[in-house]
């Protein structure tokens, strides 16, 4: 199963490193990364493969939320299909 | 690969514009629970629901977690209890309501619907017994919802049932006068009731439905309003309609995805997606505000009915392509107490009961969650039910009445229900007595448009 990690908030040094650090910690493979900075707002989406994830999806998602809270960003992990079904026919 | 702006759009819809799945409703047939002994039948009802819906709430929570989309309510609809109770010899039919409540408690669902009777062409079996027990059933349970279908395009309107329901609605309020008359908010009177509706209070599992199925109701008025506001004031109505269609498509895809996933995980066939725009009392999640953002001024003013007709049509056109199976009520809901914009419009006098009645000719349901003075007579309520049913019967659409007589309150007061049911300002209603018309009883014959064969 593939999921999308989305990160939105104020730009700062080390966001990508910290998010991919958590992925690495739980054996989650990063497939693709896209990011933009609009004025001061940083937006990044990361497509990840969670088939090899060493913990339950909910725990991985909670860890990402925790990381987000600790650095003042909104980080969410959502199943890829929610975006595919809304934007692809 | 997904586009970053698409991803951000979806996240924004969920976080900022209140996009959610309103309900995943499991429909369960209780026809196999019939028994001559009411206690045995009630036990069978409880056992069957508790077994079938055992994992409904937990699986839906997992889906919420994985997909990141809130599923606000998990519900159950069952075969109309008047049919299940029909073979019972003796015993208080309210026992079934208590069995349903117990099953709701065990499974952890928010509502369970189906304490219902279908009497559009007359009463059979235990229909009258069930209808007369509704006030007690709703006063002694929390999560049980009730509905009665009193008319249809095919059969006309059962005026004996209309007369009865006026009294029953009043009694529901009286029995729960100390709890903001909540009983009446859990009862809906239908014309052309759909058999696969996932929305409460009118959900029941029709006899033509399979043994068990998953129906999904989406929400999303906030998303539609935001989309309309973005296109500005100078664009034509055609642009508005196209924007609504596109937005409805996206909202409905969420319903289709969640329904398919829930059905797979629960091992139950997927029934339908109900395309409805269902408002909540939260600011920004209002159907009235959509109409206002189209430019009608305040909801209830002239132009409102036309705007609602366009909205309702565009929601269907956008939604129908997004889902493999569409059903239920599908359209725009206009409940008053559950919609922040409707509440404001009713409170300032811009939105009247008469205007709401006109709007129900073009929306997906009917006069919904409307609070009227507590001294409104049962005959006046019956008259309103008959009017609303006539609109549904003639236009071959579902119409419904969910009226709450606010015991001890007058125009200007407010009833606070809390949660999704919101709060309702007491609205003025005509007090001209239609008593003679209502007391005649009998059947309003089916209209010519019923003869399609």
CATH class label of chain A? Alpha Beta
Tally the beta strands of chain A: 4
Distance between the termini of chain B: 51 Å
Percent in helix of chain B: 40-55%
Using the alpha-carbon principal axes, give the shape of chain B. globular
Largest interface: A-B, 27 and 22 residues
Helix content of chain A: 25-40%
Structural class of chain B: alpha/beta
Q: Give the name of the CATH superfamily of chain A.
A: ACT domain
Q: SSE order of chain B, as H and E?
A: HEHHEHHEHEEHHEEHHEHHHHEHEEEHE
Number of beta-strand segments of chain B: 13
* Count of individual domains of chain B: 1
Helix/strand order of chain A, N-terminal first: EHEEHEH
Looking at the structure, the CATH topology of chain A is Alpha-Beta Plaits
Tally of separate helices of chain A: 3
CATH class of chain B: Alpha Beta
What is the correct CATH architecture of chain A? 2-Layer Sandwich
Question: Could you tell me the mean pLDDT of chain B?
Answer: 95
Low-confidence spans of chain A: none
Account of the protein in words:
The complex is a heterodimer of chains A (89) and B (453). In chain A, 38% of the residues lie in helices and 39% in strands. Chain A is an alpha+beta fold and 89 residues long. A four-stranded antiparallel sheet of chain A has the order 2-3-1-4. In chain A, strand 2 and strand 3 (41-49) form a beta hairpin. The longest helix of chain A has 15 residues, at 57-71. Chain A is globular and about 35 Å long. The model of chain A has no long low-confidence stretch (mean pLDDT 92). Chain B has one domain: Anaerobic Ribonucleotide-triphosphate Reductase Large Chain. Chain B has 16 helices and 13 strands. In chain B, strands 1, 2, 3, 4, 5, 6, 7, 8, 9, 10 and 13 form an eleven-stranded mixed sheet that branches. A two-stranded antiparallel ribbon of chain B has the order 11-12. In chain B, helix 7 crosses helix 15 (378-394). Chain B is globular and about 65 Å long. The chains are: A alpha+beta (89), B alpha/beta (453).
